[in-house]
Write a structure and sequence with these properties.
heterodimer, A: alpha/beta, FAD/NAD(P)-binding domain, Immunoglobulin-like, 3 domains, 7-stranded mixed beta sheet, globular, B: 562 residues, alpha/beta, D-Amino Acid Oxidase, Chain A, domain 2, Arc Repressor Mutant, subunit A, 18% strand
Chain lengths: 490, 562
Amino acid sequence: MNVDVAVIGGGPAGLAAAVAARQAGAGRVLIIERDVRPGGVLPQCIHTGFGVKWFGEELTGPEYAGRFVKQAADAGAESMLETMVLEITRDLRVVAVSPRDGLVMVECGAIVLAMGCRERPRGALAIPGTRPAGIFTAGTAQRLVNIEGVVPGRRAVILGSGDVGLIMARRLTLEGVKVEAVVEIMSYAGGLARNIQQCLRDFDIPLYLGHTISRIHGRDRLEGVSVAPVDDARVPIAEKEWFIPCDTLLLSVGLIPENELSAACGIELDPATGGPIVTDEMETSVPGIFACGNVVHVHDLVDHVTEDGMVAGEAAAAAAASAAATAGATAVTTAAAGAMAGAEGGARAKGGAGAGTRTTTMTGTGAGARPAHYSGRAGVPAGEGNGDGTSRISGTRTLGEIRPGSNVRYVVPQRFVQGGERGGGGRTLTISLRPSEPAENVVVEVSAAGKVLRRQRKERVRPGEMLQVSVDRRTLPSGDGVVTVSIVSR
Amino acid sequence: MPTKTMHADLAIIGAGVVGAAVARELARYDLRVVLLEREVEAAFGTSKANSGVVHAGFHSTPGTLKASLCVEGNAMFDDIAEELAVPFRRNGLLMVAMSADEVGVLREHFEQGWRNRVPGLRLLDADEARRLEPGLAPEVVAALYAPTGGVVCPYQLTFALVENAVANGVAFMAGSPVTSIHLRDGRIAAVETPDTIIEAAWVVNAAGLFADRIAAMAGDESFEIRPRKGEEYLLDRRVGGLVRSTIFPVPTAVSKGILVIPTVDGNIMVGPTAEDTHDRLDFATTRAGFEAVFAAARRMVPSVSPRDIIASFAGLRAASSEDDFIIRPSRVVRGLVHAAGIESPGLTAAPAIARMVVEILREEGLVEMRARRAFNPVRQAPVRFAHLSRAEQASLIEMDPAFGRIVCRCETVTEAEVVDAIRRGARTVDGVKLRTRAGMGRCQGGFCMPRVMKIISRELGIPVEQVTKRGGGSVISPYPAKALLSESGWEAEAESGPGPKSEPGADPRAGDVVGAERATPHREGPRVEGVVARGAAVRAEGDVGVRGDVGAGFGARSASGR
């Protein structure tokens, strides 16, 4: 099958990317979604708080997803549901499986990664004690309660104060579960301030900051947890430990961008975000592959995810158009080279919907079978990183770098296209960032070569809340210039 | 009180690796054999938590059963692994010396191995050792290399032995703890479980941690099980290439020490600790154990890091009051044969222990040990979709669309594999995990657990609320939605149900939030209609394969937890 833009993941990021790609003129845009329904995690997020920024009103998760599902359909995006992507290649092919279509290979003009993120599991924490039933990540519990219609227990403790955990503290309370405590190892809460108020304080659920769970008790089913304050090295202080009886423990201890597919195809990842290093057009280090949403870095608000998706979708459409234009001159070669793609494309053209996509052989995956247009641009071989300044969109360009400075854990994007007029922000470049530590009365400062480009005052910053700062592109340095974003006291 | 009676020639108590191996060995003969297991599935005791190391045999004192059965069992693994389609790899064992003193210990073990007839042992100098294993610490001064050492998956082996035994006529009864043993005229007459009396004249005691209690039920108090706990830590497959051989320190008085093990599945496992315990159900990991394991492992292989842990667990070795394996007919009761006190190298020795038990039964006079003509040693291999070529994957989905439905994303496990595991005997989420690896990857089941629960519920015909993690009281999500509301008293509290303390309207979000939650139907799940023309439409409730990762809009990454 041939498409102009393939979007991996049909959550809010992918839906937005598909809408934007179609609006920007991409011909065939295909969303590949592993669930039986689009929306990503939103269908299980039945609380409100979504869309305040994007739609100017407060929606539930299913409502927010529903609007974008409709937009994507209206825009003419296609989708394959219940389809899991197994592999993405540097020459822009996607291998996926579904019960309906079998093993499918898609040849793409551009790819948008929108796989989202996953929860950090108990195993990674190595909490001492037993391994009974009754321990869940908060999102898994959310799915059990909101989608499967089963409630995991009667008395719960929540470890970690990430937003999903906070939401679930309230959600379980509303299901008649007694939530005994939320325990957070850091001295500050991980989630949004509004969730601390609305999900914990409003329901009298205690939040223990600077505490952790020091031991898990119970043989078959969880019987309780030991909770203790931690010292400066975050080691529990045994003498101050106490026991909370409970049959359920939820973990809300971090989200991890889901980048196994990205890593396997050699996309450069940022250890600070866990996601691909991207340009301001959301292009990754592999030309023609873009990324948006939580696969890039974990966002607090779906509205920002949508914004990311829009930028990535538009840029991917441009990349696909540029690839197609080059390919026009070599169309014959393309058809001949992509043996399988050609055969499949033919079947599709005759309108063979289901059967046409069913693949019987998986030949032609070698590099030699790469359609000619994939390497036909500006003398730059496909599959080379953009670290040296190549980009899918317009061949060779120069990329500047954006780095985190003092008290900044990460910045996104990490690269910007110099002299680029395109991109989501037009003349301005918007940088997302997260502080390393909470601070008050600070200035977010963007600087380059000792010159301050932008200063933005903040009363308080917290790692749990993403910040954005915008700079005028005309002020950005050229050449090897590096832009640094810092949080400094006022 | 038992309501059923069965007649058998022989009952094996315990479906760990030893009991399972005995069952399969006895399946070669024309006998009615019953294999009893107290847990809901095979391998759910000590075997599940085994390190998976197939030992070479240089650790054990010459002349002991441990020494001879280890070397004999090791040599049997290639055939067994092939017949039973169990992953097994001879990756070699490397015992490293970190000081000149320890070099002497290596020499003693080289000598001991030679006397135990361990093939291919070599003493390596520091350079040779590092050429073999570049990840070794610079402090390693010499090593003893045993090329016959290997790794196997201990529970896969046990499941496969049971399956093959059952395919050859053995009756497997899980969830059947033995409650008493009936004697008649000084010999075994029957074995009793909560619902069945199995009349049999012969019993093989392979009851692991409870072998002494089983013996005592028959009036034999000749030994005592003294459990020794071991904690293990499993690392992400990303660092699976840290070492290729299994790395041993020089041993301590009580154990072979803490090892760095490249598992047959491609992970690195570090452990086990060795701590005597009186509690036969003490499966807790501890902070001390964690620290001991990583200190010891990092001393030999410095790049082992607790940052890469994806799972940790503890198991109990069924060590005994005797120094050696206890494989002998009871001296008190006729018809009872013990295969007890099985600690390391019990997994390696298991196939040889099974042979020895059968020899003892023959010598003791178990009559009618005629070979079963139809015995088929081959077990049909379960499909591992992730390991197949794209062409093979494509044709499998053609055959059965359930191969196209990925249930576990981390390990690429399909619905068809989960269904097959249940047909092979999995009854629990852990059972499916151990058989298929669904839930064993880096997300540890966060994604697939609800899906696996639904498949188990569907295949076994039980409500999803009754699905357990590993049987017994380990039910996972026991209450239907809203079941707890009435008992929490909230239904009576207000018509409108529970609400936040804030005045509705004080913060416009607060009221909305709660209102929205109450207004949304739960059973059905929120509905979002399909995007466009192609692709499956929204599927009916009860279908498997619904997903829910945690994504946009609600999750700052927090650095919390430990």
